Amino acid sequence: MPPLSPPPPRLMLNAVSCMRNAQTVLRDINVSVHDGTALVLTGANGSGKTTFLRMLAGFSRPSAGEILWNGHDVTSPGVFQQYKLQLNWMSLKDAVKEKLTVLENVQWFELLEGKHGRSAPAVELMGLGRLINDKARMLSMGQRKRLQIARLLAIDRPIWLLDEPSVALDTEGVKLLEYVIAEHRKKGGIVIVATHLPIQIEDAMSLRLPQRFPRRKTLVDLVR
Ligand SMILES: Nc1ncnc2c1ncn2[C@@H]1O[C@H](COP(=O)(O)OP(=O)(O)OP(=O)(O)O)[C@@H](O)[C@H]1O
């Protein structure tokens, strides 16, 4: 029997560029992402990390190149409908509904997904069990972030797009985030993270986006 060829990447970016506000933010990006892997995006403020995630989420289209999911261009209408059901997008805007309880905030998304029974364990895992019936408006910033992560777990889609997921989390919260990322990958899930803060993600691929404009001297340079 001939040697088996490795499986094709689940996601592939071929020479992708992306414009925002008539300016090229991302230029000629090539990345292959297989099941169970993680990609960490780093780079200076404004280098395009959020733009990268937004483009993968389908909010912006590539201005050049192609994004392939299972070998199909995600911008094709038939493909996009299926592709977007694979995605779980966690942005800095937390979409927490203040008048609902912590549990209802997670269940709301779970129900939309046609699933049930995952919300309470997810809330417990994220250390919010004591607050499960409290109104979400009572939550601190870090607790709101934990609630967002509980939603990821309850919705349980394969491709996670996480924009600064550890902002506002305490040390235990970051450990929980690292744990849920590792568990998701063990199940074959994909995690793409934009971050400035160190997160321990084993064997993650790293993509550092270049600074977009030559840097001008700042007050910090002058002080140095
Ligand atoms: N809504 C918008 N409309 C037009 N241009 C935008 C918009 N949001 C961001 N940009 C521009 O796109 C570029 C990349 O922004 P982006 O938010 O992707 O960077 P980032 O790497 O995520 O930055 P940060 O580290 O500050 O979060 C920036 O130069 C910014 O000015």
Describe the structure concisely.
The protein is built from seven helices and nine strands. The protein is α/β, with parallel strands linked by helices and 224 residues long. The protein has a domain at 1-86 and 191-210: P-loop containing nucleotide triphosphate hydrolases (Rossmann fold).
Name the CATH homologous superfamily of the domain at 1-86 and 191-210: P-loop containing nucleotide triphosphate hydrolases
Derived structural class: alpha/beta
- Rg measurement, Å: 19 Å
Q: Which overall shape is indicated by the principal axes computed on the Cα atoms?
A: globular
How would you characterize the largest beta sheet?
A: 5 strands, parallel
Unreliable segments of 5+ consecutive residues: none
Explain what the structure shows.
A hairpin with a 2-residue loop joins strand 4 (about 65-70) and strand 5. The model has no long low-confidence stretch (mean pLDDT about 95). The protein has a domain at about 1-85 and about 190-210: Rossmann fold (3-Layer(aba) Sandwich), CATH 3.40.50.300. The chain has helices spanning about 50-55, 75-85, 100-110, 120-125, 140-155, 170-185, 220-224; strands at about 10-20, 25-35, 40-45, 65-70, 70-75, 85-90, 160-165, 190-195, 205-210. The chain has a five-stranded parallel sheet with strand order 6-7-8-3-9, with helices on both faces. The chain is an alpha/beta fold and about 220 residues long. The protein binds adenosine-5'-triphosphate (ATP). This is ABC transporter domain-containing protein. It comes from Brachypodium distachyon (Purple false brome). GO terms for molecular function: ATP binding; ATP hydrolysis activity; transmembrane transporter activity.
